[in-house]
Amino acid sequence: MTRLLICTALGIEARALRRGLPGDPAEVTLIRTGMGPVRARRAGALLPGFGALAVAGVGGALDEDLRPGEVLVASEVRFGGRVVPCPSAALLAGELVRAGMRAQIGPLVTSDHVVTGAERRRLSAAGARAVDMEAGPLAGAAAGRPFAAVRVIVDTPNHAMLGPHTLTGGLAARRTLARVGPVLVRWAAAAGPRRVLLAAPRSFCAGVDRAIEIVVRALERHGPPVYVRKQIVHNRHVVEELEQQGAIFVEELTEVPAGAVTIFSAHGVGPAVREDAARRGLQVIDATCPLVAKVHAEARRFAARGDLVVLIGHAGHEEVEGTLGEIPGRGVLVENVDDVATLPGDRRIAYLMQTTLAADEAGHIAAAIRRRFPDAEGPRTDDICYATTNRQRAVQAVAGGADLVLVVGSANSSNSRRLAEVAAREGTVAHLIDGPSDIALDWLAGARTVGLTAGASAPPWLVDAVVAELRGLGPVTIEENPVAEETISFTLPLRVRS
């Protein structure tokens, strides 16, 4: 384990932290620096050996979003004109939340005096979220090794701390500090050098790029609000970013004012939804992925000749609902091989696939259909889209050499979930994460080679954020081995073309 050194200013903080630390002094050293930057600087020059350094204790909030008892994990420490980044802040904050604490991240300012009034407002306006009196000088002592600054809030702009003696009444803060200690131990255990195997291709595909661009251009052309039925793509970060620009996401068209600009998501809709939109006079812009639209066309073709259309997919997924909506009463969903036995034996069968499935799993189901119905006709080309297939091949290529695979994507993203399943079938531990804060530190302890990919609906910057957080735990070497080059692009609808 990386040797952890925790610095705290006051005896009351040290006693609270010590209650939560392991008894083995070989793992953790806890020292008191004394209060204020002068004492912290002196202590920083005399620190014992360590592999990871944490400054922990109480602090003051600069903005009203932080409440007493909450924990602020510094994303950076500002002191004396210098800014020291703390790149593993999201990892640490996420772990604190999983341990039952309320934690946020943001810039921490170190001051040599108690900050109040106009100065507090000025620092907050500059983006700082909390203030302490020791982290700045100690941050420099880390000298490139993993560093964290964790402050339990004891005062806020509305309830300022009068002086150090008021800490004796901070029972909640002391209890929280005792719970912070074990999390810092796990943080140190996760520290160390790593190799990151980047799957390629990863992140956005052409259909997702097109759908997001449609919303952005619609907002530019028509102005907010623009309404989007369902999530434009299945990713929380994408949806939140578009909401900030003025998009309003709704579940059903009944939530949309008559005549409003309305976008159908990349997953497609059935004719009933289109008819409802026409009745309400909505200005519709269709962001359905062209590859999903191809499946819709094949479904209509098979149904028109009298076939029972078997759709291999997952119940409740919007793409499945849209495809079956194209052929009401003439299609049936099959989710696994066992479902094939329930299909009627007296009908001619044709089958299609949801575009975001795992290729090997869907292939097993298709084979079962062909065994039972030798004359069954499948799609003219594989329904599973090129991007889904490429990302699954790419994660397979890195999974075999990794101790751990992280798949960036939201929980409701089918293609992202399939990536985690494909990686796990290669025999490695795989986890789906919405972002860096979802990474449990225990996963990283002992994992020196990490495979990393992202679903087709996950923004590329999330992958960069994960790498940055891992760098906060130690040196990272990046290796990338592309399995395919993607050059496909899709034309935008006429209504949003420049």
From TrEMBL:
Catalyses which reaction(s): dimethylallyl diphosphate + 2 oxidized [2Fe-2S]-[ferredoxin] + H2O = (2E)-4-hydroxy-3-methylbut-2-enyl diphosphate + 2 reduced [2Fe-2S]-[ferredoxin] + 2 H(+); isopentenyl diphosphate + 2 oxidized [2Fe-2S]-[ferredoxin] + H2O = (2E)-4-hydroxy-3-methylbut-2-enyl diphosphate + 2 reduced [2Fe-2S]-[ferredoxin] + 2 H(+)
Q: In which pathway does it act?
A: Isoprenoid biosynthesis; isopentenyl diphosphate biosynthesis via DXP pathway; isopentenyl diphosphate from 1-deoxy-D-xylulose 5-phosphate: step 6/6; Isoprenoid biosynthesis; dimethylallyl diphosphate biosynthesis; dimethylallyl diphosphate from (2E)-4-hydroxy-3-methylbutenyl diphosphate: step 1/1
**One GO MF term attached to the UniProt entry:** 4-hydroxy-3-methylbut-2-enyl diphosphate reductase activity
Q: Which residues form the active site?
A: 319 (proton donor)
Q: What is this protein called?
A: 4-hydroxy-3-methylbut-2-enyl diphosphate reductase
How and how many cofactors are bound, per the record note?
Binds 1 [4Fe-4S] cluster per subunit.
Which residues does dimethylallyl diphosphate bind?
234, 267, 317, 413-415, 457
| Similarity-based family | Belongs to the IspH family.
Q: Which PANTHER family match?
A: 4-HYDROXY-3-METHYLBUT-2-ENYL DIPHOSPHATE REDUCTASE
**Positions that bind (2E)-4-hydroxy-3-methylbut-2-enyl diphosphate:** 234, 267, 317, 355, 413-415, 457
What does it do? Catalyzes the conversion of 1-hydroxy-2-methyl-2-(E)-butenyl 4-diphosphate (HMBPP) into a mixture of isopentenyl diphosphate (IPP) and dimethylallyl diphosphate (DMAPP). Acts in the terminal step of the DOXP/MEP pathway for isoprenoid precursor biosynthesis.
Q: What class of enzyme is it?
A: oxidoreductase
